[in-house]
Amino acid sequence: MRNCRNARHDLDDIARELTSIENALNLLRDDIAAPNDDAALRIQITGTIINVRRAVEELDELLRGHNMERRDQAAGWAQTGRREAARLRWSLVRHRESLDSFLEMLTPYVYLRDHCFS
After folding, report:
1. How many CB atoms lie within 10 A of CB 28?
2. Which of 45, 53, 89, 105 has the smallest number of Cβ neighbours within 10 A?
3. Are the beta carbons of 103 and 29 closer than 8 angstroms?
4. Distance between CA atoms of 76 and 118, rounded to whole angstroms?
């Protein structure tokens, strides 16, 4: 982000999404720590994590591709970078929403597991 300064404003929302995803993943890690937890849900969560990783790799590629001479950065970013960043942001939003849904599904289960069956 530092090297592609023209992208900074466009990437602020992406940075917030990534922070939200990190927070959700930390909660999920704690919630499904027990070895006998739902394997099917683990597979779904793993799929979402893989998709997040792909989006982050695409974002890294996008920023590397727009790391050029200062005068060319603004034009290049305006032509393609903004649109691609918006696409990646929406991808991250969908993945975060999936992770949030997993957390909502797990909340009653985790409560019962930790308070009623332990």
Report:
1. 20
2. 53
3. no
4. 57
For range 86-104, the mean pLDDT: 95
Contact of 76 with 68, CB cutoff 8 Å: yes
Tokens 């929406």 label which residue? 90
Cα separations (Å) of 35 from 32, 74, 75, 116?
8, 50, 51, 18
Cβ atoms of 4 and 66 within 8 Å: the answer is yes
Pick from 76, 82, 91, 99: which is nearest to 21 by CA? 99
The conformation of residue 7, written as its DSSP 8-state character, comes to G
Closest CA to 30 of 114, 115, 88, 89: 114
Q: How far apart are CA 74 and CA 113, in angstroms?
A: 53
Residues 67-89 have pLDDT tens digits of 755 556 667 777 788 889 999 99
Cite the DSSP H helix spans in the chain.
Answer: 8-31, 39-65, 70-76, 82-115
